[in-house]
Amino acid sequence: MNPETKLEELLIDAEADDEGVQHNPSVVSRPWLLIMGLILVAMNLRPALSSLSPLLSDVSASLGLSAARAGLLTTLPVLCLGLFAPLAPILARRFGAERVVLGILLTLAAGITLRSSFGETGLFAGSLIAGASIGIIGVLLPGIVKRDFARQAGAMTGVYTMALCLGAALAAGATVPLSHYFGDSWSLGLGFWIVPALVAALFWLPQTGQKHGAHQVAYRVKGLLRDPLAWQVTLYMGLQSSLAYIVFGWVPSILISRGLSATEAGLALSGSIIVQLLSALTAPWLATRGKDQRLAIVVVMLLTLGGLFGCLFAPIEGLWGWAILLGLGQGGTFSLALTLIVLRSRDSHVAANLSGMAQGIGYTLASLGPLAVGVLHDWTGGWGATGWVFGVIGVGAMVAGLGAGRALYVGVSSEKL
């Protein structure tokens, strides 16, 4: 069977097997409340990352941070996305996914509070806690979607992705105006994002009382780390994510250095992220219409690089056109990275393990991009040299994507324990 035909199958029945294993059905008494909870939780998976960048210049000036230390500040949360991702299934097995999501939402709120309240130490410690929290929740939500909305998994995954992008866009665009509203206080502007985290926790609380079925049989997947295709999927995930977090962390600072105000730079980033909604939904659908995904990967990566170089070098009067181009590219690169995990897997168990590898290793790799931009800016005193970072990462992502986009399966399978 062609791998493309597996996408719908895996989304519709992520936990099925072919040997009569029994599953306890998931019991969701109020699905509308679960949907609302999922949307609100997903909206909190990016504000801690995208809210800081428009205020990074003010924060750096207030605390005396060098560009390299500011780069470390943008790197820490991304690094934690990868380092803490493997903790999610361990916690879920011990306490249940719903309870873990609730507890980690509260941890996320604590990290946001710490980041905005205790100077430089709190800024770094809170960023670490927030990144770890996002990494854990991000691994758990797709599994909940697949379990409780098995026959609507495609639509619910689209809703989940849209909510995630919307949260990022709102934080990027609203944080600077909020800081002005609160008396030009960057700490209160950053601290505001504790509010949606607590609202999400309140809506999610009823889910901890639901009774959900558990898989009766344990599976293991061996050999992914020795599989070249698995590494190509992982490298594509990591490299495209690296460009995304460079955008979250540094593009507003680049635009401010080119003459925009902090509010204008934040709005440009917010608008670019909103545009991602279009390509995030359409790129995977278009990519699965052809024989493989290689052409789609090249197209979205070229759009991304075009938008980045336009924001960096093109006349500032045409900024919004480049921001839109960047958004179209990055929405496609991210959604294709998630799609490749499913298409390159023979069954749902392989997909789950490939997802863990791609996110754990990929996001850890992605964290090096924002750090490299900060260090290079510190060395050169300008932003022009960062174009080399964009180019090297983008070309690397295309090379990895050309391998990952082939109509093949990773050479492993799942087996019962």
TrEMBL record:
Lineage: Bacteria, Pseudomonadati, Pseudomonadota, Gammaproteobacteria, Pseudomonadales
GO molecular function, a single term: transmembrane transporter activity
Protein name as catalogued: MFS transporter
GO cellular component, one term: membrane
Species: Pseudomonas trivialis
TM segment ranges: 32-49, 69-88, 100-118, 124-145, 157-179, 185-205, 229-248, 268-288, 295-316, 322-343, 350-376, 388-409
Keywords in alphabetical order: Membrane, Transmembrane, Transmembrane helix
InterPro entries reported in the protein's UniProt record: CynX-like, MFS, MFS_Cyanate_Porter, MFS_trans_sf
Pfam families to which the protein is assigned, alphabetical: MFS_1
